């Protein structure tokens, strides 16, 4: 079994009712004894409708709280950015490492991230002098998501172990560079220049790179969800899948929003 690029999928059950390799001989992907020939169900099996419904619910909650925070505007919205970012990060870690699926935690994550996105979107709109950048970022995010779904469904790009390793490595490298740039910013103005407020070729190039990586992460997310459905995992796992897709969507939106701010500042 391939390693997922998204840590949320690491909580997909790997034994009992959700053994992705049931029916394989001993020493297969998981090693050890032979997996059962049929998965044991703890509940009804996961369907594509479950994934679509739960993803739609979490997305609607995020959009709702983001819109409310954006409408509040002013210092109030901007003051919520940092607290919401911290709480959202903690909730994400809890969702990743919690052993059992918790719809309440996924919903809480979606709501808090909406507050964060609403506040930071207001900041970017104020920075460039207009709210048009927000609609452009939303349209760009949905466009990339839809395009990668078509690419996955048509098989134009196949998710192979090699591709998975490349995408995971690229994502890990990008986040490492972000962290190094953040730390460097405490010692040198602008850090490494990857997140320069006034843009620049390096900052624009890095944002484009992150957008490309996030787009390919969608392929891995779709593949994990597809294999989970085919493996007959419990329907409650759809909340994990929705959480995973939301993590990627939020990252992509922020990168597109940042890129648009660079281009409008030029």
UniProtKB/TrEMBL annotation:
Keywords noted in UniProt: Membrane, Transmembrane, Transmembrane helix
KW Membrane (keyword) present: yes
Transmembrane spans: 51-72, 78-97, 104-127, 133-154, 166-188, 200-220, 240-260
Keyword Membrane found: yes
InterPro entries registered for this protein in UniProt: BaxI_1-like
Record's protein name: Bax inhibitor-1/YccA family protein
Organism expressing this protein natively: Actinopolyspora mortivallis
